[in-house]
Amino acid sequence: MIRKTLMAGAAIAALSAGSAQAQDSAAALEARIAALESRISVLTAEVETARSRQSVQDADISRLDQRTSTPPPPAPAAVPAPAPDGFRIGNNVLRIGGFVKADFIASQYSAGDPANGDPMREFYLPGAIPVGGADESTAADFSARQTRFWLTTEGLVGGHRVGSRIEMDFQVLPGTGDQRTTSPSTPALRRAFVTIDNWLFGQEWTNFQNLAVLPDTADYVGASEGTVFARQVQVRYTRGPFSIAVENPETTVTPYLAATRIVADDNSLPDLTVRYAITRPWGEASIAGLVRQLRYETTGPGAIDSSTFGWGLSAAAKVKMGPRDDLRLMVSGGEGIGRYIGLNFANDAVLDSTGELQAIGVIAGFASFRHIWSPQWRSNLTWSAQNVDNDRTLIGLTTNRSAQSLRGNLIWTPLPAMDVGAELMYGERELESGASGEVTRLQVFAKYGF
């Protein structure tokens, strides 16, 4: 009994001791946890403080960089938009353009100088080369009369494409005065027409002519004797490569056994022209035809009332020769078409002994090679000729029989739309009598288009 009592007491004492130890261990653990939490709080505060200091330093560094670094370049000024091409008036866009051209011309004539103010002194007229006079020294002429201006309109009116063009220069009509003082010139109409869809009404280059193949020359007429060249009032219809026109008629007549010219102005039918043009990778070409009435009528004693028909064909081409060069060709021929070729070098018809008109045959042409030396330099070599099939039993011996010319040039383009060039030309004219005249010409020019 005593042993059991002692053992129970020991057990109780042991349990009491274990409970006290457990209580002591729990208290120590709680103390350590509290200390750890306190340390974590301190570390957190230190981290926040460090972050705050770093932000301040970063801001200081940024401000320092802004003060010491090179500022960025200013934004470029806005480039003004290009001026519009023309300006609108109602339903139409109006455009104005042209060019200013100054020429220096030095000419040597084998048979005497043309009179002062003669158009031959300013551009090449094969029919005006002097024949039969005395050789004279070189004649120099300065001119700005080839200066030209134009205005065009285009628009959509009532669902139709409508356009117009008015073009003038100063080359044909002199002004009031002369070269001693103000060297005036009077504006002269070149072209004036309106287009409505495929139709053209007004004064324009003849449909018998192909402008695209004209040589690049200092003289704007260029290969005069071999070129179809006429501007006149017409009504033209164009559809694709085909065009047909009725054009102003006019007949020039050589009197019987004479060499003068009568401008008849007696036609009752318009001239009819047709043309077909193609464009291919090798270049472009065209063929044109002309049918016309020739008529001359007078009144009084020995009255004349005669008419006949004339016809003509013209083929033209511009053929590419390599990547930049080209060859330009034209050949024209027929009967009764003299006023259309070579600036009316030959008349259309001649009167026979009975007062009847006989059509005069002509054949003419040119060849011109253009070589591009560089984007700024180019040259052209051009040959041109015309032969007239006169009936020598009907005409005077001073009638034109043939003409030809040869010219070469060098043209410099220092600026866009600006040309400066020099051209050397030789031309000759021969009469049915065998007499002839020659002209050698140096032409230097400056031209600016706008």
Which features would summarize this protein structure in a list?
single chain, 450 residues, mainly beta, Porin, 16-stranded antiparallel barrel, 4-stranded mixed beta sheet, 1 helix, 49% strand, disordered N terminus
Annotation field: number of helices:
1
The CATH architecture assignment turns out to be Beta Barrel
Biggest sheet strand line-up? 2-4-5-6-7-8-9-12-13-14-15-18-19-20-21-22
Helical content stands at 10-25%
The gross shape turns out to be elongated
Mean pLDDT: 86
* CATH T-level fold name: Porin
Q: Tell me the CATH superfamily.
A: Porin
- Main sheet record: 16 strands, antiparallel, barrel
Percentage of residues in strands: over 45%
In angstroms, what separates the terminal alpha carbons? 142 Å
Q: What structural class is derived from the secondary structure elements?
A: mainly beta
Question: What are the secondary-structure elements, in order, as H or E?
Answer: HEEEEEEEEEEEEEEEEEEEEEE
Query: Low-confidence runs (pLDDT<50, min 5 residues)?
Result: 1-24, 59-71, 79-83
Query: What is the C-alpha radius of gyration, as a whole number of Å?
Result: 47 Å
Total discrete domains? 1
Record field, number of beta strands? 22
- Return the CATH class: Mainly Beta
Describe the structure.
This protein is mainly β and 450 residues long. The chain has a single domain (87-449), classed as Porin. Helix content is 15%, strand content 49%. It has one helix and 22 strands. It has one helix spanning 2-68; strands at 87-89, 92-109, 139-143, 148-157, 160-174, 185-196, 199-205, 231-239, 242-247, 252-254, 262-263, 271-280, 283-297, 305-321, 325-335, 349-351, 357-359, 361-374, 377-389, 400-415, 418-431, 436-449. The strands form two sheets. The protein has a 16-stranded antiparallel β-barrel. A four-stranded mixed β-sheet has the order 11-10-16-17, with no helix packed on it. Strand 1 (87-89) and strand 2 form a beta hairpin.
